[in-house]
Design brief:
Layout (H helix, E strand, L loop, with lengths): L3 E8 L4 E5 L27 H8 L3 E6 L33 H8 L5 E6 L5 H7 L2 E4 L19 E6 L2 H11 L5 H5 L6 E5 L5 H13 L3 E5 L4 H20 L10 H10 L4 H22 L4 E5 L8 H5 L13 H5 L3 E7 L6 E7 L5 H16 L1
Parallel strand pairs: 2-3, 2-4, 7-8, 7-9
Antiparallel strand pairs: 1-3, 4-6, 5-6, 5-10, 9-11, 10-11
Helix pairs in contact: 2-3, 4-12, 7-8, 7-9
């Protein structure tokens, strides 16, 4: 079973939840699905989010598999195995929280925790046809989560329905208003972000907005591409700072070894430019949200490629083009399954809200969920 790295039962008697292998559970090693960390000692204390879940009565079912060191978009892992994509076993499950998305999509747990540094919750959620939320940066504690130092990474949940999503958030985000997150909306205004994506996915987005009977208008984010590039520079620098020392072990997968070596070349000038872009992009998002409840856009610009294509070297960097920028800005962003005309697969609808307005993002997702079910 490649969705799990370790299976065990802890806590309860509530619903079941899997925990990504970058999040500490006392008594179990945190190995980030890497051979280079295979001998890591057991964690001595729970991460804050684990303790909060246990206090709320959730039952932890085990550690979820992932893309090695949380540094990849495919979810392929030749050391711990590659989780199954529940929508299509021939396609990649997405990374880096691949096991979390797979386990939820397969119905093996009620929910899972993942982490999202450059789309690592929303990307797998879209690939696997489930819900995934990247909360506002710092809304959820990262104490006990690797890497320890980050300006991008967020802990968030995967679920199959918004009711469970709100329940997880109520457990891990102190002050989260579960009732407000599920309160029916009388009206909502969405700004459709102009992006390059597969025409069928853009058509599905338009159909979803109409079906939900939202007022809508278009918005252009001319710094979106620059924010994507800036996000790459920062994630490269911060991931190398956390894990670059593992290159010398010779135990990393080939893709991780190459990516970490490349990340080492990130220059101070590139980081300074990235921080300048972060400020400009964040301001542009805030301005766009002054005239709308949320922004909506596809989670991924195309359906996930096949495992065979990924293994043959087809690039997946564009997978994160529409999700990585919102790590840079820190806004809450949720991906939910969206019907795709003429296809058994579902695409991802991404909903981006104001900082701190995670409940409102959830309420609008619940509104779309009800519209899709009608």
């Amino acid at each position: 079973m490649t969705g799990f790295i370790d299976t065990f039962t802890l806590g309860g008697p509530g619903p079941t939840i899997a925990i990504k292998d970058t999040i500490d559970i006392a008594g179990y090693p945190t190995r980030a699905a890497s051979r280079a960390l295979a001998d890591a000692p057991p964690a001595t204390r729970h991460a804050d989010v684990v303790r909060q879940l246990l206090d709320a009565g959730w039952q932890i079912a085990g550690k979820a598999n992932m893309h090695e060191l949380a540094f990849g978009m495919t979810g392929i892992n030749d050391y711990t195995g590659t989780p199954i994509n529940p929508q299509d076993a021939a396609r990649i499950p997405g990374g880096s929280s691949s096991g979390s998305a797979s386990l939820v999509g397969l119905g093996q747990v009620d929910a899972a925790l993942g982490t999202d540094t450059g789309g690592s919750i929303r990307g797998p959620a879209a690939c696997c046809g489930v819900l995934g939320l990247k909360p506002t940066f710092d809304r959820v504690s990262r104490s006990g989560v690797a890497p320890a130092d980050t300006t991008l990474d967020c802990v968030g949940p995967f679920t199959r329905d918004m009711g469970t999503m709100a329940a997880v958030m109520a457990a891990i985000a102190p002050g989260f208003d579960r009732v407000r997150a599920l309160r029916p909306l009388r009206e909502c205004t969405v700004a459709r972000v102009a992006v390059n994506a597969d025409p069928s996915i853009l058509a599905a987005l338009d159909a979803a907005t109409a079906r939900a009977e939202c007022r809508s208008h278009g918005v252009v984010l001319d710094t979106l591409g620059a924010a994507f590039d800036a996000g790459i520079s920062i994630i490269n620098a911060e991931t190398f700072a956390a894990f670059g020392h593992l290159v010398e072990t010779g135990k990393l997968g080939a893709d991780l070894d190459a990516r970490l070596r490349a990340a080492a070349a990130t220059t101070p000038a590139a980081l300074a430019h990235a921080e300048s872009v972060r400020r400009c992009f964040t301001e542009q998002i805030d301005r766009a949200l002054a005239d709308a409840d949320v922004l909506v856009l596809p989670t991924l610009p195309a359906l996930p490629i096949t495992l065979e294509e990924a293994r043959s070297g087809v690039s997946v960097i564009a997978m994160s083009s529409l999700i990585r920028p919102f790590n840079l800005s820190g806004h809450p962003a949720l991906s939910m399954p969206m019907p795709l005309a003429g296809s058994p697969l579902k695409a991802g609808l991404q909903i981006v809200g104001r900082k701190g307005a995670d409940e409102h993002v959830c309420a609008i997702a619940a509104h779309f969920e009800a519209a899709f079910a009608a």
